[in-house]
Amino acid sequence: MKYKEISIRNIESRPEQIRQEFAEEKIESLARSIAEVGQLQPVVVQKKNSHYLLIAGERRLRAIKKDGKEKIAAVILEGDISPEKFRQIQLIENLQRQDLNPLERAISINKFMEDNNLTKKDAAERLGIARTTLTLWLNILEFKKKYQKEVLKEDSAITLSHLSLAHALSSKTGDPNKINELLDAVIKHNLSRKETQAVLDIFYKYLHIPMDEAVAAVLLKRERLKMKDYWDADKDKNNHRPVRKLLRSFNNINDNLEKYMEEEGDLSEKAQEDLLDEFLYLYQIMGILIPDLKNRSIKELLEKIKNN
């Protein structure tokens, strides 16, 4: 292994390049950076007769060319390098630099495993990463292109962590439709990883209720938390306002109900009757305070809340 500056004209890109997409604006940004402070990291090449084969650093090479330079700093690997070893070196270099998008990374690792007949454990050891991390990275290959593309978007809610949760759902249910319902909800409602886990907790706990109902429950909680923050922000200032005190009381009831559901889960028949009586009484009182309630059934009210 040697390190020196070599002529750009003597470098050839190998056809089995891992990285397939090169955003022009990022190349130009890198070129400006190199023009400003110089080339901080060398490319990696293989000596081949009178020329060099590029192993890693395609973006750096393109940026140097844009900057109009004739030479580039390079680490030169001498001697024969098998295609398998070449791919391993290229993969490790790109992984260390975090130079691949999640899909390119997964495709490259998967091909490396297939070419060398490796298990996930063996591949993780050769690439110097944890097996759990490698498994997380590879999950993306098991999903539809629609969701793969979502992961690549900078403004998308879906991350590899969301895919990991969806993968676990697949293992437990074996129903691909549930995976689609979950990930579509993540996209539509911008669910965080924590909220997505909450959806699955509800789905698993209550005998696989419809996914949209589990999502609706989490969205309702999201809105409640927003309102709780709003009430708490100026609690002292508005303590004298009866309506705000009433709303805070309802919020405490909801907190206690959620806590009970998490700790106990079920109610005795007598407890169900008692709570139902209290609910119906509260509903009648609310009907006096809010006349519009009299014109809607409970089912209509629930549908309105869910839709909102």
Automatic annotation (TrEMBL):
Molecular function GO terms recorded: DNA binding
GO BP terms: chromosome segregation
Name of this chain's protein: ParB-like partition protein
Keywords, ordered alphabetically: Chromosome partition
Pfam family, one: HTH_ParB
Higher taxonomy: Bacteria, Bacillati, Bacillota, Clostridia, Halanaerobiales
Entries under InterPro entries matching the protein: Chromosome_partition/occlusion (IPR050336), HTH_ParB/Spo0J (IPR041468), ParB/RepB/Spo0J (IPR004437), ParB/Sulfiredoxin_sf (IPR036086), ParB_N (IPR003115)
Cellular compartments per GO CC: chromosome
